[in-house]
Design goal:
- The chain is an alpha/beta fold.
- The protein has 16 helices and 13 strands.
- It is globular.
- The relative contact order is 0.20.
- The N terminus is likely disordered.
């Protein structure tokens, strides 16, 4: 922890006094694994090998199961009860169309790869399966990455595994939970890896976020900083080996991380208003409308700002950012609108947010450094039900990739004529995980890192989706 509290009492509610809280909270060097020690250790580790590449992943998870047909495989030659309800739009790739709600992505299709033969393999709600690559440790890909790269970036201190929910970008927002996000605790208790590799939740609901708050006046903070500097200078003077002499810069770095770097990365007000406006998706639908349906009560029109925050966090050193967009349950059974009436609205938001994100990356020279992955728990039944909706379908699942230095401007695989099953080689979560890990890590180096133990095997055993790397 590295909370610094400022109040009038001598002790916190846990019975720890202010000086003690500061000591164990990350700026001091008096015991435990403090932030400066962590930064020092990671700097040493970085000097010993190049396992981690200078790249990041943004994993946009559309919770509830987006329809693969209305997204990127419209099947307009199929019978009426199968084909896309939104029609199709021609892309910049000859002969390739997307669903009618994706005109912006259609215009930049040369910067995308769509995998039409990808299947999650299960038709029930499970965040863990696609987010873990179905690995035997039942740990999310973000948690596995953090196990190799470290829980924090060695220079900026930015957490390496972050979850962005709508509450992270709008203060005071409180969305009701639903079953689609029931598996999200796997981010905070990632299987066998334990809580050390949990996701950082910038919405303020996580313990880590609360521990990063600075709540004392600057002069009081500087006073405590002076006390720490004095104490550590004394320690340095009496250490004939000079061990602590090199620690001062890590203490300074830890202070900078808390007071400036990490906090600023989460502050969208520091962005150019024109950039914020380009990302803004608040006009695509009214939250009150979609949230009035049970299956969609965690949906929001804030995806654009979530994606903007994701870009800022990657720039600040985060290696794996998960963006959660809920409400993609399209049974049309009055738990969601009849005839999937909300789908064009929500898909339009996705179209706009992704296009803004990718154009922003290109303008900043970050396209090859950040890989965007867009998927969900499952696809949707090819044949619409009696209410005009689509039910759960595990045989095909939406998958889009962009950037990261991978090969773009292509469609990999194809589905059969009714979009029921892959007509070419089938790819699944293990292939996706292998693709992501090969992008983020030097797999050859991972294999020889003995301290990783079973994690090294889990990360290195998979086969990436062909044609991407």
């Amino acid at each position: 922890m590295f909370t610094i509290f400022g109040n009038n009492s001598d002790r916190t509610c846990q019975g720890v006094n202010r000086r003690e809280f500061l000591r164990i909270g990350g700026l001091g060097l008096l015991g435990g694994l403090t932030l400066p020690m962590l930064l020092h250790a990671k700097a040493q580790a970085a000097a010993n090998g190049r396992v981690v590449k200078d790249k990041s992943v943004v994993f946009l998870f559309l919770s509830g199961g987006p329809s693969h047909i209305e997204f990127f495989d419209p099947k307009m030659d199929a019978p009426a009860e199968i084909r896309s309800i939104t029609g199709e739009t021609q892309t910049t790739l000859p002969g390739i169309t997307f669903g009618g709600s994706f005109p912006q992505l259609a215009r930049i299709a040369d910067k995308l790869t769509i995998v039409r033969s990808y299947a999650s393999g299960r038709g029930d709600h499970t965040y863990l399966l696609p987010a873990s690559g179905d690995n035997p440790m039942k740990a999310t890909m973000g948690a596995l990455y953090a196990r190799v790269a470290g829980t924090n970036h060695p220079e900026t201190g930015m957490p390496n595994n972050i979850l962005i929910v709508p509450e992270a970008v709008e203060r005071g927002l409180r969305l009701q939970g639903n079953f689609e996000t029931g598996a999200l605790p796997t981010l905070t208790a990632p299987g066998e890896l334990g809580v050390s590799y949990r996701a950082f939740d910038p919405s303020g609901s996580s313990e880590i976020q609360r521990n990063m708050e600075l709540r004392i006046p600057p002069d009081r903070l500087e006073d405590r900083r002076y006390l720490l500097d004095t104490f550590d200078t004394m320690r340095t003077d009496i250490d004939n080996r000079g061990v602590l002499a090199g620690a001062d810069r890590f203490q300074q770095q830890a202070f900078d991380v808390i007071s400036r770097g990490v906090a600023q990365a989460f502050d969208l007000s520091r962005e150019d208003p024109r950039v914020i406006a380009r990302y803004d998706t608040s006009g695509f639908f009214r939250n009150e409308y979609v949230q009035s349906y049970y299956d969609m009560r965690r949906a929001s029109n804030l995806l654009g700002k979530q994606m903007l925050m994701a870009r800022r966090l990657c720039e600040a050193g985060c290696g794996f950012v998960t963006v959660s967009d809920c409400g993609w349950d399209m049974h049309a059974n009055n738990n969601s609108p009849r005839d999937m009436a909300a789908l064009p609205l929500m898909a339009g938001q996705v179209d706009h947010a992704i296009a803004a994100f990718l154009e922003d990356l290109e303008a900043r020279g970050l396209s090859d450094k950040i890989l965007l992955v867009v998927t969900g728990e499952m696809g949707r039944t090819p044949r619409r039900n009696n209410n005009g909706g689509r039910d759960h379908w595990g045989n095909l699942t939406t998958l889009l990739l962009a950037g990261g230095g991978l090969r773009m401007g292509q469609v990999i695989g194809r589905s059969d004529r009714t979009a029921s099953s892959p007509a070419t080689e089938r790819y699944g979560p293990p292939h996706l995980m292998a693709t992501i890990m090969h992008t983020l890590l030097d797999i050859g180096e991972v294999r020889v890192q003995r301290e990783l133990g079973r994690v090294a095997n889990v990360i290195s055993e998979g086969t990436p989706i062909p044609g991407l790397l």
